[in-house]
Design brief:
alpha/beta; 29% helix; globular; seven-stranded mixed β-sheet
Amino acid sequence: MLKTIILLTDTVQQQQPLANLLREHHRELAFCSALRASDLSAIEPEVLSEARLVSFANDVAVSEKFLFRLGYGAYKFYAAPVQYPGLPPAPDESDDDPRCYSVIAQSMTIWPDFKKVVGLETVTIPDGTLAAERERLVFSRLAHLFWRMSDMLAGEVTDLPGIIESGETQRPTLAMMN
């Protein structure tokens, strides 16, 4: 039975709103907060078998040992420019501001062949948008994806359904992205 959600976020301020949203779907959930890998290693091992890790806008690497102990999987919410899917832009290309981003919810697994995208949306940035506004637009779309998936994240399912599996050769369609 899912008892605990481990929230791995970029800032402390993100913890409470995300926990409140998940609690709306599962009142009995307990939450562990983490900002760094050391916070994850401080969690008692017996908690992990009935826990799910949700990483939101955080790029901390999670150890294989930790992932293996989780009873309800791990999911990462992040944004990536469409021009550089899964990678930050090269330093010499930083003056070329990307106009289109994907916000992605992806499973975190020990075996790369079993990773899957469980949520995907895109956002197009209007021409002339300042960097701070671009970040706000992308972050708000990422938060929307989390909100849309919150009932599944708080649920008992041990493995969320994928919309794109690692082994699939099919390219995503616009219907899949929005």
